Amino acid sequence: MTKASDVFTLKNANNIEVTFIGRGGQVIGIKVPDAKGQIADVVIGYENVDAALAGDGYFGALCGRYANRIVEGKFELDGTKYQLDINNEPNHLHGGNDGFNNRVWDVKPYADSKYAQAYKLSIVSPDGDQKYPGELTVSVIYGLTDDNEFVIDYTAETTKPTIINLTSHAYFNLKGAGTGTIENHVLELNADKYTPISAELGTVTGEIAEVKGTAMDFVDAKKIGEACKSDDPQVKLVDGIDHNFVINSYDGRLKLAARLTDSESGREMEVFTDQPGVQIYTGSHFDGTETGKLGTPIVKWAGVALETQIFPDSPNKDHFPNAVLRPGETYKHTCVYKFS
After folding, report:
1. Mean local confidence (pLDDT), 97-105
2. Bind-site residues for beta-D-galactose
3. What is the mean pLDDT of residues 40-47?
4. Catalytic residue among 149, 157, 270, 307
5. Which of 12, 93, 96, 123 satisfies CB 3.0 to 4.6 Å to 116 for a cystine?
6. Active site residue 17
7. Confidence band (pLDDT; 50, 70, 90) for 295?
8. What is the mean pLDDT of the chain?
9. What's the pLDDT score for residue 235?
10. What is 7-339's CATH topology?
């Protein structure tokens, strides 16, 4: 039986290590060499497991049943109306008050020749859990390849029609956690469009807008700080970026969504997914009151999350990608973080 504090580590032939714990499948460390072979931990978080269990439960965790926001926690499915927890006023976020990030997942070694090492994480969410319909059975593979790919492979099945959107919530700093902000990181996105947010709703309006001419334009790679310090009204709303980007030419196949580069260390991370969107969040709410890795405060823009997923509030927006899962169907989602 897996415990919340149980620690698991994936290693490959190139000195890359991914460490996670039983609670939330929370990734508490990813060690990656820089251009000179120097190793650093590139996910922000805490110095030890006890601190991780006491701290921000979203750091590096699996989020669900519905990652991101649902407006006022309301949705209707097949004529039945549902009211979910409001835990991010005025909305529902990441499964509510007791999301998958708070649950202890069952973790077992997983054998597959494409991985240097892998684990399978499983959970059963009963009918009515988090106020969602249907018993949901979820499996997540964490696999590390010798091509330096950290693969997160999700599958889920349900006993009743339900909604689903799973993601991983790691914040990356390619210089190394605790060594400053990601303002000088260069971000490139395979996204000509994004979904603007409103202050009133606290999330997406339903509009799908062009990034061209806005701070959200990362089609041509640019420094994250350039966007975060701009006067763009969307940036001002969240003091940075907390937006869903629409991946170009979505067809359900794995494709490049993002490329993050730190010129100082020479580290680069590419993000591939078969999902229609990627939420970019620059950690604007970090205020330095918590101590993170290397004993340094976790400050605003200390890391950036790149969360592959279906769009926020998709169940209430007919023109957004489908987030409904029905009995007999299988939810599938693959996300790959590739380091170089």
Report:
1. 98
2. 68-69, 169-171, 242
3. 97
4. 307
5. 12
6. no
7. very high
8. 98
9. 98
10. Beta-galactosidase; Chain A, domain 5 (2.70.98)
In this structure, are residues 63 and 75 in contact, taking their beta carbons and an 8 Å threshold? no
Pick the catalytic residue: 169, 185, 243, 333? 169
Q: What angle do CA 174, 110, 145 make, to 5 degrees?
A: 35
Kindly list the domain boundaries of the chain, sorted by start residue. 7-339
Instruction: Taking the CA atoms of 14, 190, 197 and 78 in sequence, report the sign of the dihedral they define.
Output: negative
The band of 291, judged by pLDDT with boundaries at 50, 70 and 90, is very high
Distance, CA of 264 to CA of 247 (rounded, Å): 28
Q: What is d(CA 60, CA 176) in angstroms, rounded to the nearest whole number?
A: 15
Q: What does residue 293 show for φ and ψ, rounded to 5 degrees?
A: -65, 150
Residues 158, 125: Cα–Cα separation, whole Å: 9
pLDDT band at 321 (very low <50, low <70, confident <90, very high): very high
Active site (annotated) includes residue 307 = yes
Residue type, 152: I
Quick one: average pLDDT of 31-39? 95
